[in-house]
Amino acid sequence: MTAPAARVLIVDDDPFNLDLLDYELRTAGHQTLLAANGEEAWSLILEHTPDLCLLDVMMPGIDGIELTRRIRADERSSSLPIILLTARGELSDKAEGFASGAQDYVVKPFEAAEVLARVAIQLRIRRLQDRVREKVATQAWVAMVGTAAHQLSQPLAGASGYLQLMEASAAAFEEGEERQKRLAQIAHSLQRALALMGKMADLRRYRTEPYACHLSIVDLEASSGDEREGSSDVPRVAIVDPLSADAPPWLQGMSEDGWKIRLLQHFDELKKWSPDLIVLQQLSEADLQQWIEMIQGLPAPVPSSMLIAPSTRADQVASLLESGVDDVLVMPLHKEEIRMRLHTRIALRALLRQDLESQSLQQARRVSLRTIDDCEPHIRQGISLVEQMRQTRGTLLPAIRELASHLDQLNLAIRSLQVAQNSAGS
Q1: Between residues 49 and 399, which one has the greater pLDDT?
Q2: What total number of domains does the chain contain?
Q3: Domain-located, residue 140
Q4: What is the pLDDT of residues 79-106, one digit of tens each?
Q5: Same domain? 94 vs 59
Q6: What is the pLDDT of residue 15?
Q7: CA distance 233 to 385
Q8: What is the model's pLDDT at position 315?
Q9: How far apart are CA 323 and CA 121, in angstroms?
């Protein structure tokens, strides 16, 4: 797995480790930034915006754990991938590192090949996430444009139809109950359109529903108002193990915590179930590559993948990491460590999903505000005109034509939304 050149920040108070990692990363084609302590590293992060940080844990002053927490707490650096490097390999140390927000953890003394492979993985994940963010932003824009066009077209079509009937037979609607009935129908349609404006202005989350031509639109009922109960997501973990009929015992505690665990045997089960994380074990080299290709071909965001391997040699671990999985654990397994790593992967994926939903919501709100600015004044003016027409005696032709002008502007705005949706969807 050859990663495109990236800017990597190396932070270590040991000059030998700093020089070694600098040499290995530059030889691999990356640019490097070097810092001997946490304060220097923080300044470089703010000034140069690195793509990844290799961070020693044990340093004087601001240590690696504290710096990781600072990086995660600041919006300017919160998405920076962090790989912790330390001589402390106890489970409690790893737990503290992952809890602080690190994506990975390498114990010293390390093999350069494994470090480079783990760097490549985190850079690949970040590139994929950036692509997902771009795609999701476009999808959210298309979905909200489609929502505005679809939801508004129905009440406005009704109002326009009733008004055209009145205009074509103006003499028949000079006075009486029929006239008031038609005006009430127009007012009801415009009030429905105004209520839709209110829901579009009250978007609090991003929820979609299927629409035509494999597109989705925003579900305004589910996206506005208070959150419904029972909407929290439960982690879903798939186990791919052709030699076992049951899930491994180290997953029992997670099942008790409410996680959904499923043993998969065939490729087609993967698409149907859509897990958050996939654990691969006891696979041949050919089967492993097939499963990895299947995972990478799933709709974004792609689930995290973890390989449990019998090998303990660092060069073999590096080779397995280069195959395309996100993490490798080697036998013998420590139950608490694998559960900790699974929790970390699930937590990172949850953060990504929250970020994507937030981005989608912001995009939907932009479309909503633009639609409200274009449409709401005409809707309110139309409601006002209908109310005046209800109080007017005699001919309504001047008012009908003025109302028709506002409805024409609204229908023009809807057609523009439909054209934009069709263009983006194609």
Answers
A1: 49
A2: 3
A3: yes
A4: 899 999 987 766 777 778 888 889 888 8
A5: yes
A6: 93
A7: 48
A8: 65
A9: 10
Residues 75 and 21 placed together within one structural domain of the fold: yes
Do 243 and 323 lie in one domain? The reply is yes
Q: How far apart are CA 28 and CA 281, in angstroms?
A: 30
∠ CA 371-426-212 to the nearest 5 degrees?
70
| Region at 227 (left for phi over 0; alpha for psi -120 to 50; beta for the rest) | beta
Cβ-based burial of 360 (10 A; exposed 0-12, middle 13-18, buried ≥19)? buried
Q: What is the Cα–Cα distance from 70 to 13, expressed in whole angstroms? A: 19
Tabulate helix, strand, coil % of the chain (nearest 5).
60, 15, 25
CATH for 296: 3.40.50.2300
Domain that residue 40 falls in? 7-110
**Are residues 150 and 98 part of one domain?**
no
Secondary structure class of 412 (helix, strand, coil): helix
CB-CB contact of 71 with 80 (8 Å): yes
User: Over the stretch 122-177, which tens digit does the pLDDT of each residue have?
Assistant: 998 888 888 888 888 888 888 888 888 888 888 888 888 888 877 766 555 556 67
Please check the confidence at residue 425 and state whether its pLDDT lies above 60: no
pLDDT in tens, 335-370: 777 777 888 888 878 878 888 888 899 989 998 998
Whether residues 89 and 153 fall in one domain: no
More confident residue, 163 or 77: 77
When computed from its CA atoms, the radius of gyration of the chain, rounded to whole angstroms, is: 29
Kindly list the distances between the CA atom of residue 325 and the CA atoms of 6, 118, 259, 288, 320, in Å, as whole numbers in the listed order.
20, 10, 22, 9, 8
pLDDT of residue 71: 95
> Position of tokens 């004087």?
60
CB 144 within 8 A of CB 138: no
Q: Is residue 120 part of a domain?
A: no
Q: Quick one: tokens of 200?
A: 């579009």
pTM of the model: 0.71
Supply the angle between the helices 397-425 and 335-391 in degrees, to the nearest 10: 160
CB atoms within 10 A of CB 10: 27
List the CATH number of the domain containing 385. 1.20.120
Q: Which of 86, 118, 98 is nearest to 13 (CA)?
A: 86
| Alpha-carbon span 383 to 95, nearest angstrom | 62
Structure token digits, residue 358: 């937030």
The secondary structure element, H or E, covering residue 328 is strand 327-330
Q: What is the 8-class DSSP label of residue 224?
A: B
| 101 and 72 Cβ atoms separated by less than 8 Å | yes
Place of tokens 């190396």: 10
